[in-house]
Design a protein that fits this description.
The chain has 310 residues and is an alpha/beta fold. The chain has 2 domains: 14-141 and 279-301, Rossmann fold (3-Layer(aba) Sandwich), CATH 3.40.50.2300; 144-274, Response regulator (Rossmann fold, 3-Layer(aba) Sandwich), CATH 3.40.50.2300. Helix content is 41%, strand content 21%. The chain is built from 10 helices and 13 strands. Helix 1 crosses helix 10, helix 2 packs parallel to helix 3 (105-113) and helix 5 (144-156) runs parallel beside helix 6. The protein is elongated and about 60 Å long. The termini are close together. The model is unreliable at 1-24 (pLDDT under 50).
């Protein structure tokens, strides 16, 4: 199996495979599915969007697709607004990668009350918050904890017991970020490493760059930086380079985005975890279409993750 990422979206844009708006049932009778993602500045979600659009193009007779996302990882109000907008446009299903595991539950409850099917992908909604809201929303996606543990175990083989390591986690209220942090901790604790710092890079390259620089300055003996996504791994790699520690501090990431491949190839990043971003939305869309067609009760579906090294 398998530098800065260009910001292809300078401002939030609504990208649609079909014209937005229209009644709940189009003249063709095809269901309309909305994909609501997180930051379109993140290559991972650009890849997710492209995968979804290719799937729709190959199944144009089966459904219509509206693809959209927010400007940055923490723009919760904008994502809430997008969900409301999709309901008002009459979609039958929303496949969502929520920016926050709790904050999106209220608007998703409104959407479900309006008769819209909700499928949760990428970042799992908080179970307790769903229960309190009286909601059951299926999750289609990977086991982030197991994936992070697996890539952490690759790192552990390059270190020795007692070595100092640090974790750069994602948005702290995001369930997938929490699970990746826990998976990193599982691997490091099992191998006897010393976790000397854990800080959030909020999933973003520039923020992670600053966090990594601070960790390296405060902890000169750190031997590895465990990053909860590849965007942050890119920022961490730049910080390691700037600190003159290239080759002395190992880095791992999560997502297997294209921009990371040169760093994997030359050793600046040791490993990452591929959750198949180009197919992740497709899995959610296919689950939604099956429920709409068969009128079945949706359930959770675990998808594949793979460790990627040089």
């Amino acid at each position: 199996m398998k530098c800065l990422i260009p910001l292809l979206f300078a401002s939030l844009a609504l990208l649609s495979c079909k014209p937005a708006g229209g009644p709940a049932n189009s003249s063709s009778g095809k269901p309309k599915v909305a994909l609501v993602m997180k930051s379109l500045a993140n290559e991972f979600f650009q890849t997710m969007a492209e995968g979804a659009k290719k799937h729709q193009a190959a199944h144009a007779g089966d459904y219509e697709l509206v693809v959209n996302g927010i400007k940055n990882e923490t723009d919760l109000a904008e994502q809430v607004g997008l969900v409301d907008q999709m309901v008002s446009q009459g979609v039958q299903a929303i496949v969502i990668a929520p920016a926050d595991s709790k904050a999106l539950v209220t608007v998703l409850k409104r959407a479900k009350a309006a008769g819209v099917l909700i499928i949760n992908i990428d970042n799992k909604l908080d179970a307790d918050t769903l229960k309190q809201a009286g909601l059951s929303i299926p999750f289609v996606g990977p086991d982030n904890r197991a994936g992070a543990k697996a890539v952490g175990e690759v790192l552990a083989k390059k270190l020795k017991a007692g070595d100092e390591v640090a974790i750069i986690e994602g948005v702290t209220t995001a369930f997938n970020g929490q699970q990746r942090k826990a998976g990193f901790e599982d691997a490091m604790n099992a191998a006897g490493m010393k976790i000397v710092a854990t800080q959030s890079g909020q999933w973003e390259m520039e923020k992670a760059n600053g966090v990594a620089a601070g960790i390296l300055a405060a902890n000169p003996n750190v031997k590895a930086l465990l990053c909860a996504n590849d965007n942050m791994a890119l920022g961490a790699a730049a910080a390691v380079q700037a600190a003159g520690k290239a080759g002395h501090v190992q880095i791992i990431g999560f997502d297997n985005i294209a921009a990371l491949k040169p760093l994997l190839a030359d050793g600046r990043v040791l490993a990452t975890c591929d959750q198949h971003g180009d197919q992740l939305a497709v899995f959610g869309i296919e689950a939604a279409l099956k429920v709409l067609k068969d009128k079945t009760v949706p359930g959770d579906q675990q998808t594949q993750v793979d460790v990627i090294t040089k």
